[in-house]
Amino acid sequence: QSCHAAAAACMRAAQWNMALKLLTKDLLAEGLQPGLITWSSMITASATGSQWSVAGALLAGIRRSLLQPNAVISSSVLSAYVQGDSLSWKSAFSVLQQLLLRSLQVNEVVGNVAVGACLSSAAWHPALHLMQSQACCRSTAACSALLTACSIQGVWQPALALWTSIR
Predict the structure, then answer these.
(1) Could you please report the per-residue DSSP string of 133-147?
(2) What does the alpha-carbon distance between residue 103 and residue 47 come to, in Å, rounded to a whole number?
(3) Which of 53, 95, 102, 151 could share a disulfide with 156, CB 3.0–4.6 Å?
(4) CA 18 from centre of chain
């Protein structure tokens, strides 16, 4: 418990790497395997530090430990991907597909984050595909962001057609 509190303080101070060290050191000292709460804390720390590749690696660690990441953890990873580089949208797209394949409840917030990860990488086409195929990705905010991204790229017609179809 005290380790999680110390890690939270580090995250608030933008010391994501120190938060990760505290969490892993505490686990190693106790000879414990991390549970979903600890994994979630570590992913949040990396997302806070805009370390999308670390968040992705931690998600892979959860899967290797045979735990099943829940929607909260996946949303945290998706949030990290919003801060990523031009290829991070592919990882965000994959995370969302995994959530949907496992029939986890994907809400509008998770859908918006996935669309945002695509749009932050100027990947309007995958964002449009998500919005066309997944109801969770069709919020007004996501549509507005897609319209803006498409208009900047000069491809506003597909986004406008989507907007018209879901109104």
Answers:
(1) H-GGG--HHHHHHHH
(2) 24
(3) 151
(4) 21
